[in-house]
Amino acid sequence: KQPHSVVRVGRYSERDINIVSPDSPILPVGFKSKVVSRRHCEFWCSNGQWYVKDVKSSSGTFLNHVRLSSPGQESRPFPVNDGDVVQLGIDFKGGEEVIFRCVKIRIECNRGWQKSLNNFNTSAHKRILNNNQAGGSEATATGSSECSICLNPVAPCQALFVAPCSHVWHYKCIRNLIEGRNSPNFMCPNCRFVADLDADVEPPEE
């Protein structure tokens, strides 16, 4: 994506797709819906914040159920955030049975925090360590347990497998045992506990 690119949303047209060069700052997105105008709205990012505006659509652009402008009038820019819902047009009934549906878009943006340390994954990691220690596994002096297969630390933001006996490994280290010829039966290489990985999940006994 080029810096300062504009995502131009409208009704699908092969002509618009074919005339856009790879180096163009315009990124067309088309929907095959009769309630979407040929040019409906635009998205762009400025200083880390995404924005949307209606570009004179006839059926309207809605942000979290609020229409951005009157029909045929361009709106001012509105900031959009992760989890917002943008709606293009409104449902329209033509005749007795034909219904043209609006287009709803759920925004997913600025999710870089999910790939780095944050309160959620560090708290989840601590809970895993607590279960691991309760199951008899020893922790290092730093409070981070080790994968008994590769002997490297088990840390946040890693793909892990937690056995029913609460022992923990890196998923890529234990994968061959999980998917082995005895699957779905799994034998813990640490304590030799055997579990059925396809067993129904039941509430813990008090």
TrEMBL record:
One protein family per Pfam: zf-RING_11
GO annotation terms (biological process): protein ubiquitination; ubiquitin-dependent protein catabolic process
Matches recorded under PROSITE patterns: FHA_DOMAIN (PS50006), ZF_RING_2 (PS50089)
A GO-annotated cellular component: cell division site
Domain FHA: start-end pairs: 7-68
InterPro entries assigned: FHA_dom (IPR000253), SMAD_FHA_dom_sf (IPR008984), Znf_RING (IPR001841), Znf_RING/FYVE/PHD (IPR013083)
RING-type domain residues: 147-192
Single GO MF annotation: ubiquitin protein ligase activity
Domain of life according to the entry: Eukaryota
SMART domains: FHA, RING
Alphabetically ordered keywords of this record: Metal-binding, Transferase, Ubl conjugation pathway, Zinc, Zinc-finger
PANTHER family reported for this sequence: E3 UBIQUITIN-PROTEIN LIGASE DMA1-RELATED, E3 UBIQUITIN-PROTEIN LIGASE RNF8
Protein name: SMAD/FHA domain-containing protein
